[in-house]
Amino acid sequence: MTDTLPNLIAGEWQLGGGDGTVLSDPVTGEALVRVSSQGLDLDHAFDHARGPARMALLELGYAQRAALLGEVAKVLQSHRDDYYEIALRNSGTVRADSAVDIEGAIFTLSAYARSGTSLDGDAVLATGQALPDGAVDSLSRDASFGVRHLLTPTPGVALFINAFNFPAWGLWEKAAPALLSGVPVIVKPATGTAWLTQRMVADVVAAGVLPRGALSIVCGSAEGLLDRIEAFDVVSFTGSAQTATRLRTHPAFVVRGARLNVEADSLNSAILAADVKADDSACAQFVAEIVREMTVKSGQKCTAIRRAFVPAPLLAPVADALRAALAGVRCGDPRDTSVTMGSLVSRAQWQAAHEGLEMLAGETERLVDGRRAALIGIDPERAACMAPSLLLCPDPEQARRVHDLEVFGPVATLAPYEVGSASAATDRASSLARLPEARAVAYARRGGGSLVASVYGSDETRLAHLAAALASTHGRVHVVSPSVAKTQTGHGNVMPQAMHGGPGRAGGGEELGGLRALNFYHRRSAVQGPAATLAALAVAPEPLR
Ligand code: NAP
């Protein structure tokens, strides 16, 4: 019999009813733990979070809440080994890949703990519970009457519905700005990997760091959660575009008007600049980054490079270099220390990734065929291990699926682009059309809006033009040149200082970006009034609630 993980509701641990869902080891198939959210008192969970838990958070100021985040990070640090063990067993990841999630979570919390301390003194409006948004603007000739904008924490709860691939970071990158804002959190992790999220919440709650009920967790089905969402609550969803489409039409958003942030799938690109030669170090950086993005977490990263565009004359040498580098990847049981890339998260994901490869077959050929690679220490009938496959799309102009289908695994497509001005299909009149990489930019845009595109070259001024051309359709543009070989943070790594999210198909959401993340958890209001009132907003001595 496997243990059932309790849910944390209104500060109390509760077991869900029914059979629940059993979480398993994606390499061995071993049953690990069971989760269920059936029969939980969700009304009580939301009422408690919006009421006493929120008030307890607001009793503290921004800087004090920032200090709490620092304490949370310390608690997580002290239990690291447990988290690596859970990630190994439930996500099938090698240690370095588990670190992306676990250390990424701690790093992000620590970053908000640091930057949150700046929200003190003049940075906070008089009530202690609002942030200024710009200065006072006069609305009268004699300046007696004016307007000041302020940001106040939304008087509701933040619900996170998360994806399976980042059970640690996915919680804390959102919880850090929410809690810093004074907004309580209810998290529903993806069922398949809920164990790590649940353990982290359990450790933080056991340490007594946060006010009771400020952090709740529901493991298992999301049923009933959105029905409880009210006008001032906020919901952050990370997952597939398909589920996002269903969520967007829920009455919580279309009737009650709650705020929804969506982070969905993305056909991210990497572009090698047109002036790069095969033996330039920028070319080597491009190759190394594609390999890294295909293999870190077995390609199960929303930011991973899915499409790589090279100037047509460089297609052959780049393909050779990628083939050689991918030959060094050892895929299999992450318990084997010679293994460099572990498993996909489940056999269902393994199946979906293989089906995705088949769907791309009409437009691509296999440069590296993962089906032929040896898998180390696993039962191929049972394990969700999948070696990397590199595809070649010879005609990205005509291709459709390559720009539309996200294979969520160790799969990327290499495609050549003709150097020179763009086709009539792109905006001929703009400076984009004059870029030598115009066709590559046009291909990147066919992803319909992506989280990130990276560009590689040695002429840093030229790269600025390329970055500007990509910006309007990408949430982040990552520029790599030989001068930053040792300092660049990686195409797929999401840094807390940089915005994460993307337009269009990527969901249209925005997360992180330093203190910009607090916007989602605050409401912007304009206060119009006498100059003295507007001044008092900034200087009133006593906290007003
Ligand atoms: P998913 O199937 O859409 O599930 C995401 C979350 O939604 C899970 O917690 C799931 O719960 C929940 N869910 C499913 N149906 C629901 C419904 N009808 N109402 C409310 N919640 C519902 O996505 P996934 O397979 O876990 O994640 C992989 C996808 O996420 C990839 O496409 C990837 O690109 C994307 N992703 C994006 C980002 C980003 O930041 N943009 C980050 C990571 C992943 P259950 O698990 O219980 O079904």
UniProtKB/TrEMBL annotation:
Keywords: Oxidoreductase. Gene3D superfamilies: Aldehyde Dehydrogenase, Chain A, domain 1 (3.40.605.10), Aldehyde Dehydrogenase, Chain A, domain 2 (3.40.309.10). Residues 24-480 form the Aldehyde dehydrogenase domain. Pfam families: Aldedh. InterPro entries: Ald_DH/histidinol_DH, Ald_DH_C, Ald_DH_N, Aldehyde_DH_dom. One of its GO terms (molecular function) is oxidoreductase activity, acting on the aldehyde or oxo group of donors, NAD or NADP as acceptor. This is 3,4-dehydroadipyl-CoA semialdehyde dehydrogenase.
